[in-house]
Amino acid sequence: MxxxxxxxxxxxxxxxxxxASGLEPVNFNNQLSACIEINGMKITAEGxxxxxxxxxxxxxxxxxxxxxxxxxxYTVFSKMEEYQSYIIGGKVAFKKSEHKYLPLSAEQxxxxxxxxxxxxxxxxxx
Length: 126
Fold this sequence. Notes:
The protein is α+β, with helices and mostly antiparallel strands. 15% of the residues lie in helices and 47% in strands. It has one helix at residues 2-20; strands at 26-30, 36-46, 49-58, 71-79, 84-93, 98-103, 115-122. A four-stranded mixed beta sheet has the order 1-7-4-5. It has a three-stranded antiparallel beta sheet with strand order 2-3-6. The longest helix is centred in the first third of the chain and has 19 residues, at 2-20.
C-alpha cells in the first residue's frame, strides 16, 4: 500500500514538473519499486533532447525483484485515446544509488502536446 501511495505522489510530482517546463504530463510506471526508489525528478532539454533526470536510491539489488542482471530497461510511449506509440527505450544500469538521466525522445517535436508514459522494468542480461 505504501508503494502505491508513493507511486501516486511521484506521478503527481512528475506531472507538475512536466507542466511547469512546458512539456505534457508524464505517467511513471516503476515496476522495480520494491528495489529502487526514484526521487527528485526533473524534465529538462539537454541541447534539443528532452531528458528526465532523477535521483536513484537502491533499496536492494534488482535481482531481488526478479531481474537476471543489474541492468534495467526503460521505455517511453506517447499515450493516445485508443493506443500507445513507442518513442524511445534503452538499458540503464541499476547498480548503485546515483543521479540518472534518461532521454524522453530523440527530439522535442516527437513528444510535443502528448501525454507520455515512462516504464522501468528488468532488462535481458548481456
